[in-house]
Amino acid sequence: MNTEKKKLVEAITSQEEDFVQWYTDICLKAEMVDYSSVKGFMVLRPYGQAIWENIQAILDKRFKATGHENVAMPVLIPESLLKKEGELVNGFAPEVAWVTMGGSEPLEERLAVRPTSETMFCDHWSHVLHSYRELPMLYNQWCSVVRWEKTTRPFLRSREFWWQEGHTIHETAAEAEAETEQQLNCYADFAEKDLCIPVVKGRKTDKEKFAGAEATYTIEGMMKDGKSLQCATSHYFGDKFSRAYDVTFAGRDNKLQYPFQTSWGMTTRMIGAVIMTHGDDSGLILPPAIAPYQVVIVPVAAHKPGVMEKAEELRQRLSAFVRVKLDASDNSPGWKFSQWEMKGVPLRLEIGPKDMEKNQCVLVRRDNREKTFVSLDELETAIPRLLQELADSLYQNALKNREAHTYAAHTLDEVKELSATKSGFIKTMWCGDVACEEKMKAEAGLSSRCMPFEQENLGEVCPCCGRPAKTMVVWGKAY
Amino acid sequence: MNTEKKKLVEAITSQEEDFVQWYTDICLKAEMVDYSSVKGFMVLRPYGQAIWENIQAILDKRFKATGHENVAMPVLIPESLLKKEGELVNGFAPEVAWVTMGGSEPLEERLAVRPTSETMFCDHWSHVLHSYRELPMLYNQWCSVVRWEKTTRPFLRSREFWWQEGHTIHETAAEAEAETEQQLNCYADFAEKDLCIPVVKGRKTDKEKFAGAEATYTIEGMMKDGKSLQCATSHYFGDKFSRAYDVTFAGRDNKLQYPFQTSWGMTTRMIGAVIMTHGDDSGLILPPAIAPYQVVIVPVAAHKPGVMEKAEELRQRLSAFVRVKLDASDNSPGWKFSQWEMKGVPLRLEIGPKDMEKNQCVLVRRDNREKTFVSLDELETAIPRLLQELADSLYQNALKNREAHTYAAHTLDEVKELSATKSGFIKTMWCGDVACEEKMKAEAGLSSRCMPFEQENLGEVCPCCGRPAKTMVVWGKAY
In B283-383, which ranges are E strands? Predict the structure, then answer.
């Protein structure tokens, strides 16, 4: 290892030494984020923003394909509007940032910087909805929201984060429930296919559900260190908000009715999930679907005649089918290798005078560093194939990691022993009583991640109280 | 005119009767915006948001083609950070919304909801900039900003608006000045080619320039009623902010230097400009480049065998090269015609049993209602041609309107006479003294729009004071 490369790699804490510090190092050194002068707020730098824009593009297309339309709601919400639905405001009140001055004058009513926008959507619908013919209204918005968190960490928990929030209203409860399910499946499919993160789909317990929701569904991922991360949620509200905000429509029978509502969201947190699911001690490893550059071209012996010209020719050719970067800087090839490994570019293409003689180049996968010599005539097939193989491999490795760190337990002692010695998902049966859920937290430090749709029968009784079990729960320590 | 159509059209105030009310009617009835429960804040409904997304897509591509990268900065700015550059904070202080509470606790320092982000960009650059090798940094962000305006109107002036703000730093003043000019030209080209709005390029007077800028450049449009609208601005800051925020880099001589800075922005206001430049008494007329639907298909005698199938077949075929909507609703063709005219769809395609017999359809331009019978075999050439003709025509008509309402004046009496009897641009020479600029406001109700790059010599003296003239100014009454 040359000195430059060593210096760069040494600058990252190893995962084994301190996973949390490794994570922070990657966020900063791969130039994804910067801390700002506002405590708990982050800056998305070009590389982080480019990843987010790729996520946005894929999700936005998926949402539009199922009939959703984008809108933009105000960033500020009057306190009286926020308070109309009691559970929601109780859930969010401790984390709201309040605007109390407009210019030099105190406001008559304080305004919340939006923590979530159910209230604004309901307010709007109360103006524009008239007839069942206008239903469903399938809306989404891309924006940032503010929640006054105590402790923060880039992407995972910050006082401002970027997200999409889908909000829909429907004529019937069944249609709203179907929407909730459809959007959860959309998230799961995106997480698994595009982010290469296997997820557990399930329903949140009442304790963990969204403030004001009748039901919250979730996809839960497992990070490399065995900890859990909630990847996205989809909520069913029934007609609770419609009633609180007086959203009505004339039904098929010409009588006034309340529509049934959903909301669903995915956030910049998913970038954190990508980092912690796939990254290694050399840095980030990006799934091809969201990588700002899918291929980086590094010329070797770039001063030799024709090398830079060939590299530029390849860049132009490749740009027809992949996102490609040619690193034409003065740095050494070794430095460039480390730099682009740090940034997680899925494939590196090396081209030098010897390769040119043989009409070939070297393709190196970021994940396993496997080198392939490829004829320059075959790049159009070889590159997409290698990118797909890398994506499949990322998914399979994450799945293996999850399977290796998922444990079944039958007694509270087993749970406590596992929680003390292992990091991962712990599956148990559960009676459904929140007291037992709280006991799991107090005695084993675990929170319920979800009641998976794919249930297993691990026994007949709840390990906490011995009463009959109703469902299987996945527990974990969460980011 | 059938009754339904009449009802819809009558619901819009005519331009002649009350241009301002006509404008508001269009904004609401074309379903672009809704008022919200927060005074002065608007909701972008799907149709308005879709127009904005088309604007975003075109501009974003242009910005990226010239090397700009997107980032995301925090929505809140500490007061102390905002105050480091005195002119900026003095300019914006009266319009800032202040966050003073986080959760249930008062903040130690109040935070501004961003009115503009020069300060955050400088703060970030002070962390990450080290060497001249990293320059230029060419950043942009898409977001909303908040300014506490007294009187508001959809798109034109609201307490929150959506925009892009470009922020760049450069090694030399010359490079920063070139960037300012490049971006102004980018805006002018976009306004003229994509929005079909002719603009006057020029420099703002010191009185009208951006708070803290050394120079502000602008593109100014004229609306149908002769009033002016500032369409976009591009600012040159020199190293004023760099010095205030301690942004430095090691130069080629290895000494610390301050970079030179620019910023430039275009906002949702441009949707207002489009409405007021092209619209008529039947509603909106959208330039094809930003129209959510470029063609609407209206089946005639839709109950007759094969009509709906043919319409759907055409929709699929057209979707390969235009944004197309098939109106398959139960409403009458007449109602649909009015509805989509109101929404400004550039071309209407009518297809009925008689047309099908002749293997043809009718294409109707929104702007002049010209009907063309087109063979179904020729749609791939006819539609793009008609869209281009419509765009050219929109631009030419707007240019004619501007030329017909641009007046030269040589004395203050002439200016006052013109201002009292005509609506439009008034060109005069000017001595450069702010006292004369203020006199034009006080006595003729005019503000300086810009000192156009294309100067004319209208005389030797300033009409206000009789002293030698330095430049020609375009004056107007502005939205």
Answer: 295-299, 324-326, 347-351, 360-365, 371-375
Measured CA to CA, the distance from residue A176 to residue A264 in angstroms comes to 12
Distance CA B328, CA B307 (A): 11
In the prediction, which pLDDT does A2 show?
Answer: 45
B344: left (phi over 0), alpha (psi -120 to 50) or beta: left
Verify that B132 and B226 share a domain, yes or no.
Answer: yes
| Residues A308 and A381 both lie in one domain | yes
> Which chain B residues are Cβ-neighbours of A146 within 8 angstroms?
75-76
Closest Cβ–Cβ partner in B41, B53, B76 for A38: B76
ipTM for the whole complex: 0.95
pLDDT in tens, B289-337: 999 999 999 999 999 999 999 999 999 999 999 999 999 999 999 999 9
**CATH, residue A453:** 3.30.110.30
Say whether both B346 and B442 belong to one domain. no
Q: Are B189 and B418 in contact (CB under 8 A)?
A: no
Q: What is the pTM of this model?
A: 0.96
The arithmetic mean of pLDDT across residues A35-39, rounded, is 93
* Confidence at residue B10, expressed as pLDDT on a 0 to 100 scale: 57
pLDDT digits (tens, 9 = 90+) for A58-116: 999 999 999 999 999 999 999 999 998 888 888 888 899 999 999 889 999 999 999 99
Is A201 found in the same domain as A298?
A: no
Q: Is residue B45 part of a domain?
A: yes
B423: domain range? 406-476
Question: Is the domain of A81 the same as that of A41?
Answer: yes
Query: Judged by CB atoms within 8 Å, which residues 147-186 of B form the interface with A?
Result: 148, 160, 162
Mean pLDDT to the nearest integer, A14-25? 96
Check A46 against B69: CB less than 8 A apart: yes
Q: With a cut of 50, which residues of chain B have pLDDT below it?
A: 1-6
Given CB atoms, is B478 within the 8 Å cutoff of chain A?
no
Q: What proportions of chain A, in percent to the nearest 5, are helix, strand and coil?
A: 40, 30, 35
pLDDT at B2: 45
Q: What torsion, rounded to 10 degrees, do the Cα atoms B143, B146, B151, B157 define?
A: -20
Which of A213, A332, A322, A303 is closest to A264 using CA atoms? A213
Beta bridge partners of A371: A364
Q: Do A93 and B77 touch (CB under 8 A)?
A: no
Assess if residue B424 is contained within a domain: yes
pLDDT (tens digit, 9 = 90+) per residue, A349-376?
A: 999 999 999 999 999 999 999 999 999 9
- Please count the structural domains in chain B: 3
CB contact at 8 A, B140 and B70: yes
With a CB-CB cutoff of 8 Å, which residues 422-451 of chain A face chain B? Answer: none
As a whole-number percent, the residues of chain A with pLDDT over 70 amount to 98
Look at residue A111 and tell me if it is in a domain.
yes
Touching B: A residues 38-77, CB under 8 Å:
38, 41-46, 49-50, 52-53, 69-77
Residues B85 and B52 in one domain: yes
Residues 95-114 of chain A with CB under 8 A from chain B are: 95-104, 110-111, 113
User: Is the model's pLDDT at A5 over the cut of 70?
Assistant: no
Do B96 and B165 share a domain, yes or no?
yes
B329 and B271, same domain (yes or no): no
A113:B69 CB<8 A: no
Instruction: Give the pLDDT confidence score for residue B207 in this predicted structure.
Output: 96
| Mutation site, B28, B29, B36, B95, interface A, largest A CB count within 10 A | B36
- Residue pLDDT, tens place only, A189-199: 999 999 999 99
The shortest CB-CB distance from B75 to any of A53, A69, A160 is to A160
Q: What is the pLDDT of residue A262?
A: 98
- List Cα–Cα distances, B208 to B91, B212, B235, B440, in angstroms: 11, 11, 12, 14
